Amino acid sequence: MAERGSDSRVDIVANHVSKSSEADLRSVLVTSVLNLDKLDTDLFRGTHHWVPRTKRLFGGQIVGQALVAAANSVSDHLYAHSLHCYFVRAGDPKVPVLYQVERTRDGRSFCVRSVKAIQRGQPILICQASFHMQQPSPLEHQFSMPSVPPPDTLLTIEELIQRYLSDPNLADNTRQGLNKILADEVPIEIKPVNPPDFYRRVAMEPKKLFWVRARGHIGPGDMKLHCCVAAYVSDYSFLGTALLPHPNHRAQFSASLDHAMWFHSTFRADEWMLYECESPWSGGSRGFVQGRLWRQDGVLAASCAQEGVIRVKTVSQSKL
To answer: Which residues form the Acyl-CoA thioesterase 2 C-terminal domain (predicted)?
Structure first.
């Protein structure tokens, strides 16, 4: 089966890649991260692009790839509206991930898919995704988008780090840590609205706002694809929101336990969206975070929620 699958790519990604004429500008999220091998009916294989410094698989990648696999098993007129995932084992970046899709239910307006992400014969993620046929309704409302500066007036994470590195009095260990962040080949671009204090010297409210988009070009494409990219993006820097009120503690170990996402409106994941993150609670070595992704025109595109384990150690104040 592996040999046959080596030439077969998941339809929602492969169709988009073949239509793009801007090969050098394509988002790596489309050409690599979310571009699965189809091994058999409802069986796919994913490989890895970016691996965090934890040396474990990035949770957003597994969620995004699971949604790609699920989306490939539904009709073209059905779109993802929610997903619910449990991370049950740490992923090994040296081993490909198999995605096994179960067609749980096919209804007239809604259908459900169950996906197991498997390494070495054991599940590392269990995901259920629901798809529906878009229907108009007179019942519509949403919260108001926070009032923030537009993305073209803000600096990227990389530009902010370069500013810190220009300080001749910067401590060596801090400089090394910032250079490691710069060396990461993260396939998304971020512009913080309230830039983080990289030294973590003061307690902050457990909230953060940043503009985010996929690096490279995706184009209007298929909403299924943009939902898969948004699922990848939604896990980035999410759980860390729970640490903001605790400057005297550092995460010794952290990992996502579960992740849920709801898609509300159409959007493009390669255009700037505002990610509003907050942590209403932490305790028992766990943190709970919620998020909202807003389009630039103020439309609520998606909502997210996650709980994760966070084991910390007490640290002294950083010295510049």
So the answer is: 204-309
The third-level CATH classification (topology) of the domain covering 28-133+149-314 is Porin (2.40.160)
Per-domain residue ranges of the chain: 28-133+149-314
- Of the candidates 27, 235, 254, 270, the residue annotated as catalytic is 235
Q: What angle do CA 122, 125, 128 make, to 5 degrees?
A: 125
Cα–Cα distance, 225 to 140 (Å, whole number) = 25
Q: Which position among 234, 254, 303, 306 bears the catalytic label?
A: 306
Q: Which of 61, 234, 256, 303 is catalytic?
A: 256
For residue 235, indicate whether it is catalytic: yes
Distance CA 123, CA 27 (A): 28
Q: With a threshold of 0.85, does the pTM exceed it?
A: yes
Residues 65-102 pLDDT 10s: 999 999 999 999 999 999 999 999 999 999 999 999 99
CA gap 16, 38 in Å, rounded? 16
Residue 158 CA to residue 169 CA, distance in Å, equals 19
Known catalytic residue at 176: no
Vertex 179 angle, CA 178 and 182, to 5°: 90
> Residue length, the chain?
320
Q: How far apart are CA 280 and CA 201, in angstroms?
A: 21
